[in-house]
Design a protein that fits this description.
This protein is mainly beta and 898 residues long. It is built from eight helices and 55 strands.
Length: 898
């Protein structure tokens, strides 16, 4: 038997969206699926589903009343004649659960034979979990399941007592939560009307509105108060639980409708679309909904359940209007998609994409049902946009176009593209982002960022606004798609910008043709997105080769330019990207993989996988772990860190000779939080040398065998070793370190240096200033600044390594204050006056780099240090990195010669 623990569902107070934090949840369908087409169910047809109430009180309800309310709420589901589900109270929990002892019930390590209904009498548990005043009323769901039998073993529910104004509200919330407990998902039928939705496809109020009191579905993810009637399951809720646990004769006594939701191309099946059926004669009381694809966790087109929906329990003889509806808000773990066209009725034989033949979205063909009969093939094809017509992207909006051909970007094939108002095409997801930046282009900049960036082709990514002028249109053929922004101003409105992006099937290329541009800023280029990029890619001059440039991507993951200082020079330019269709492979896997210590890849420190030739990934999900083997010596201080990555990683350090696990980390980074991992460990000075191995895997693979894991994708690993003395660097501190050899800097012999925690060295006096500026740089002490910024040294290490002819100062995994991202850099003071600055991975966010004599030095202006290998060690040379120009010296070195 394989048991798995699941997350629970949460209901928030009135007009606060419910949170569905779980692997899968479905509107009008099962909350958890076991396999495609097979939902999880309580055993024996749901007969005597167990529950174990708490010993305490629940807000306005004393203990006895709270237990009675729980039974009453379960009975609202158990007394339905169309369902076999029933509920049986077991022994009470062994303790009165409160904030001091709730963890074993929230996060048990194994099934314990109890299905806890926890009464948070004073709300302290919810305050701890969600913060004071969160408005969260409760959460519930299956907790442990057996995947071999597709059975639910145990459930759980937590109820927030103080949030209930009276016993009626408590009962309402319980009925909703116990629907989740039974494995029902949220649904959206009539509830959205109270949020401003229409009674038919927008903007049509097809059915005359009636008072909706008592007609709001119990499993709607918002609570509107007792008048909504949550304590009595709506027909939609009854249909859902009766489909999971059908009583004898239920399916035979009623009708059914099933179909598939298609994109405008008529071929791509779309999951995540809310589908509603209303009885034309009784449109609100007799109405049901389902999310397309609700019976599978997959969106693979080969899955028979992708994009499909099914309604059971329909009234025999009734005629139903079936239509697609945009989810406005709420927690649905089958992610509701942005509809690729207008909301639309099923139109029978007239159903089409409205391009090849007319299809009026305000007209429906009724589907008449009969008992024991399934009306199949009730398919809806979204109406598409017509070539040449303005696309309704609005301000910061986007639309999805389904292409007449397949197009590959960085190893992934797409049949649609998102046209974003702000001057770009993205793949897999739209983007309303108007604040273009390198961080948002590459995604995950800063290592621990949750930002996910889709693959993007940016013509002029800027804050454009078609509502102020111009238009966005498209044309297509069987082998090309062209999207054109014509005279579109920047938000303001300011100016006008004309350009187009063409995707061509032959050769799988992309061309950007620029007309007149008024914008002096913006971003242009191509990126593979955060699943592929390392986050360390640097911008380039796109127009350095004349009027038309062809960029062969080859093994590059991004090619782009950010215009930030009125330097946009792309007017009347032509740019073509080729050779970007292929994917990327983990180059260290080799013929036999590197998924064990015996097969580990031998590396030499320092080692990093930021460059494409060192592409590394945890892939496939649940089937990969990567080992790297190296030697260390006594006294080494090892830094092992996943500094970028789309997976939630774990790292382990092993004795490669014995196989013993020496250390492991899940969410290390700088602060013990986040999704990436870090180890800073020391080797005993008595050790001559030791053979070690580092393993990188996805979170929850504690055995480091690759069989676990919940996420996958590219990561960037950094390994390095250091010798020396760890300095007592705190937040905004300075430590004086002697120099044991002749060192002359800025015209004076120096016998000591102050190592400042904020990424700089000064002579004569320490400096704890954390607000780097050119003025302070020029006015202060003589200074060497490898990366002067507001750093937080207590979350990393600062090491001084004395050698016969050099003093090496190492900043090891030191984040910026308030950041989760590491900075690695060194400054070496060389006998006679030479200086070497060296950078490993950094957060790339900003700072000041350079040398100065200080004391009121004259400002020589900035130097672009990324174009320099050598600089003078005398006088002043510097570069200030501040938004939007980000730090670009990662993995580079700079020599200052006396």
């Amino acid at each position: 038997m394989k048991t798995f623990r699941l997350a629970s569902r949460i209901l928030a107070a009135a007009f606060v969206a419910a949170i569905a934090h779980a692997p899968s949840a479905y509107a009008g369908g099962p909350l958890e699926n076991c396999s495609s087409g097979t939902p999880m169910r309580w055993p024996a047809g749901g007969v005597n589903i167990p529950f174990n109430p708490d010993q305490g009180d629940l807000g306005p309800l004393a203990h006895v009343a709270a237990v009675a309310a729980v039974q009453n709420a379960f009975d609202q589901w158990g007394n339905l004649p169309t369902s076999t589900a029933s509920y049986l109270a077991g022994v009470e929990l062994p303790v009165d659960v409160d904030a001091s002892n709730f963890l074993p019930y929230l996060s048990p390590t194994a099934p314990d034979g109890l299905s806890a209904i926890v009464f948070d009498d004073d709300g302290a548990i919810f305050d701890l979990l969600f913060g004071p005043g969160s408005g969260i009323l409760g959460f519930a769901g299956p907790e442990w399941t057996d995947t071999t039998t597709c059975s639910i073993l145990e459930g759980v529910s937590f109820l927030n007592g103080p949030s209930f104004g009276d016993p009626t509200e408590a009962l309402d919330v319980m009925v909703h939560e116990f629907g989740h407990y039974s494995n029902l998902a949220h649904t959206a039928v009539n509830g959205q009307i109270l949020l401003g939705d229409f009674t038919g496809p927008t903007p049509n109020d097809t059915f005359p509105l009636v008072p909706l009191a008592g007609l709001i579905e119990t499993m709607y993810p918002f609570y509107f108060g007792p008048a909504a009637g949550f304590s009595s399951p709506h027909l939609d809720d009854i249909q859902t639980i009766s489909t999971l646990y059908p009583a004898a004769g239920y399916l035979a006594a009623n009708g059914a409708i099933t179909g598939t939701i298609y994109a405008p191309n008529g071929a791509t099946k779309l999951s995540g679309v809310n589908v509603i059926a209303r009885n034309v004669a009784n449109p609100f009381a007799d109405a049901v909904a389902a999310m397309s694809g609700d019976r599978t966790d997959s969106t693979d087109q080969a899955d028979a359940f992708t994009g499909t929906y099914r309604f059971n329990g329909l009234t025999p003889g009734a005629s139903y209007a079936v239509f697609v509806d945009q989810i406005l808000d709420g927690g649905f773990s089958t992610p509701p998609i942005s509809l690729p066209g207008a909301e639309d009725f099923y139109n029978g034989s007239a159903e089409s994409n409205n391009i090849t033949s007319p299809d009026d979205p305000s007209v429906f063909t009724g589907v008449v049902v009969a008992a024991a009969t399934t009306n199949s093939g009730i398919n809806i094809i979204f109406n598409g946009f017509k070539p040449g017509d303005p696309l309704p992207v609005g301000d910061d909006g986007f639309v999805q176009l389904f292409m007449p051909f397949k197009f590959k970007v960085c190893g992934q094939e797409y049949d649609s593209v998102f046209v974003n108002a702000n001057g770009s095409l993205t793949f897999g997801a739209g983007s309303g982002d108007f604040s273009e930046s390198v961080a948002e282009l590459l995604g995950g900049l800063g290592g621990q960022s949750s930002l996910l960036a889709p693959p993007r082709i940016a013509g002029l990514w800027d804050d454009l606004n078609v509502l102020d002028g111009g238009n966005v249109t498209f044309d297509q053929s069987s082998h090309s798609l062209t999207v054109r922004w014509d005279a579109v101003p920047e938000f303001g409105p300011v100016g006008a910008n004309t350009f187009s992006i063409t995707l061509k099937r032959p050769g799988n290329s992309a061309t950007i043709d620029y007309g007149a541009l008024s914008a002096t800023d913006g971003l242009a280029g191509l990126t593979c997105g955060s699943e592929i990029t390392s986050g360390f890619e640097e911008e380039q001059d796109l127009r350095r080769f004349g009027h038309h440039r062809v960029i062969a991507m080859g093994h590059e993951t991004a090619a782009f330019e950010l215009f930030a200082n009125a330097d946009n020079d792309l007017s009347d330019f032509h740019l073509t990207f080729v050779d970007f269709k292929d994917g990327f492979k983990d180059v260290f896997e080799g013929r036999h993989g590197n998924n064990s210590i015996a097969k580990a890849t031998r590396v030499f420190l320092p080692f990093d996988t930021s460059k494409l030739h060192a592409f590394t990934a945890v892939s496939p999900l649940g089937g990969d772990v990567d080992y790297y083997r190296f030697r260390a010596k006594g006294g080494d201080i090892l830094a092992i860190e996943v500094v970028r990555g789309s997976p939630d990683t774990m790292v382990g350090l092993f004795n490669a000779s014995t196989g013993a696990l020496l250390a492991a980390d899940d969410d290390g980074g700088c602060c013990g939080v986040g999704g990436l991992s870090r180890l800073l460990v020391g080797i005993a000075p008595t050790v001559t040398s030791i053979d070690l191995a580092v393993a990188v895997t996805s979170w929850n693979d504690a055995d480091f065998d690759g069989s676990g894991g919940v996420t996958s994708g590219r990561y960037v690993l950094y390994l390095n070793s250091y010798q020396g003395t760890i300095l007592p660097a705190g937040d905004d501190t300075s430590t004086e370190v002697p120099i044991s050899f002749p060192f002359r800097y800025q015209g004076a012999n120096r016998t000591s240096v102050f190592v400042n925690s904020n990424g700089n060295l000064t002579f004569g006096a320490g400096d704890t200033d954390f607000t780097e500026s050119v003025a302070d740089f020029l006015a202060g002490s003589p200074r060497i600044a490898p990366l002067w910024n507001d750093l937080f040294a207590p979350d990393g290490l600062v090491i001084a390594e004395q050698k016969p002819f050099s003093l090496d100062l190492h900043y090891v995994s030191v984040p910026a204050f308030g950041s989760l991202s590491a900075n690695y850099f060194d400054a070496s003071l060389i006998f006679g006056g030479g200086i070497v600055l060296n950078w490993g991975p950094t957060d790339r966010l900003g700072g000041l780099v350079g040398l100065t004599e200080g004391g009121g030095a004259t400002d020589p202006g900035e130097t672009n240090l990324s174009n320099r290998l050598l600089i003078p060690a005398r006088r002043t040379t510097y570069e200030l990195f501040e938004a939007p120009s980000l730090f670009d010296l990662s993995f580079q070195a700079l020599l200052a010669i006396p």
